[in-house]
Amino acid sequence: xxxxxxxxxxxxxxxxxxxxxxxxxxxxxxxxxxxxxxxxxxxxxxxxxxxxxxxxxxxxxxxxxxxxxxxxxxxxxxxxxxxxxxxxxxxxxxxxxxxxxxxxxxxxxxxxxxxxxxxxxxxxxxxxxxxxxxxxxxxxxxxxxxxxxxxxxxxxxxxxxxxxxxxxxxxxxxxxxxxxxxxxxxxxxxxxxxxxxxxxxxxxxxxxxxxxxxxxxxxxxxxxxxxxxxxxxxxxxxxxxxxxxxxxxxxxxxxxxxxxxxxxxxxxxxxxxxxxxxxxxxxxxxxxxxxxxxxxxxxxxxxxxxxxxxxxxxxxxxxxxxxxxxxxxxxxxxxxxxxxxxxxxxxxxxxxxxxxxxxxxxxxxxxxxxxxxxxxxxxxxxxxxxxxxxxxxxxxxxxxxxxxxxxxxxxxxxxxxxxxxxxxxxxxxxxxxxxxxxxxxxxxxxxxxxxxxxxxxxxxxxxxxxxxxxxxxxxxxxxxxxxxxxxxxxxxxxxxxxxxxxxxxxxxxxxxxxxxxxxxxxxxxxxxxxxxxxxxxxxxxxxxx
Length: 545
What we know:
Helix 3 runs antiparallel to helix 4 and helix 9 (237-272) packs antiparallel against helix 10 (279-291). The protein is 39% helix and 21% strand. The protein has 4 domains: 1-64 and 175-236, 3-Layer(aba) Sandwich (Rossmann fold), CATH 3.40.50; 74-173, no CATH class; 268-302, no CATH class; 320-537, Rossmann fold. It is α/β, with parallel strands linked by helices. 35% of the residues are buried. Strand 10 and strand 11 (332-342) form a beta hairpin. It has helices at residues 40-48, 81-86, 90-103, 110-125, 131-141, 158-170, 188-200, 212-218, 237-272, 279-291, 356-365, 401-406, 415-424, 441-454, 471-483, 495-501, 520-525, 527-537; strands at residues 2-11, 14-24, 29-33, 55-60, 66-68, 176-180, 204-208, 221-226, 229-234, 320-329, 332-342, 347-352, 373-378, 384-387, 459-463, 487-491, 504-509, 512-516.
């Protein structure tokens, strides 16, 4: 168990938390949610002891151990994968290292013998004899193959390192588990494994995630950061959303009734205060008016950007035709004889085992990459626009946001148009003068969405558009794409996003494609699709988002 008492933290005049008193109990998984900048990651750091609050205290049970999903991918570069996982349980790892030093000696002294006996007892008490098998189960579930497990961390790709660090946090049955965006870089199979692991986990979990489907699957409670406080709701994300909206509506209704009552009393007082026969009633109503108190409605930190895509023209009969498209990257056949026709109204989610096939296809369709063979043709009425996975090149200049957006705005529009547009995308006032070189990941994504909206395109290509966005921005983008009347081709790791936007699924496999006009959840449960996948993958992994 872990609890907070009167925790307060402020940076200058900006208060993140004020007098937060909470108790997180074993057997529960708490989803920590809030707008970008609300302090979710900061609160996890306070709980872990990495940051000290201005006042208040953190309490954990006696001899209880906290495990944290570390964000520094390079901290363990000189250690093997297995050792990195073991280091999640620091006390066990120290015992393992000392035990190894003693046993590696040629001859052991009597003192060494006594110490080794003590270490063996401690080692057994911490289930050290099961450490290797437990680490193997975790790594296997998170998609780290056996051939990588004895390598040093510096030999792994960035996505593989993140998975190892997640295994490190899960290792050794910690009493309190703090996870910040644990589904990043995980494929569908690994996310499902993690959901099952956390569902069975007997201790306390506190998790930050922008993946609504994941929060719905694993959370027993939602801890909502807003109005400088944290309020805990019982239930998953969907229950929180319904409860919070109902709570807000009730407060608004109560305030409206009180306002109507106050106006009624004021009107009576104005009409009859000078009337002798009504003076007593007017005085009585004055006293009633003084007792009426409107409940304060503080401004929420949640803000939704205005995401609406308006095509400048409708689509003709021909949207996109792909014939025999093939491409190899560094000797690996990524696309193999791909043939596909995109139709009016298609919102296609592309899935595959790994992201290279999807990224390569989108780069070819955007004109950034040439295929080795085959061809594709956009219809004459089609204006495509792309949201690339890597958009760092768009932010290398020292322009401010008004100047940056001006590059993509209609030539007849000036600064006032740019300011208005940026304001709707949550860059208001002085924020519009920010230099693009200092933008956060989420701010860059909102800028790229602004560029996409200004394009007037009638066919959108989006590669991982929800990365770095908070739940409010994801909701706005989700709504914008659902209402978009023409064509969307996209890839995303957000299960909820895919399942609610896509009306067609195309899975890219090493031996061909699976193409079905249906929703994503239906696709995953379809028996015929599963049989086809087994044949096409020939024993390889299943699909990832």
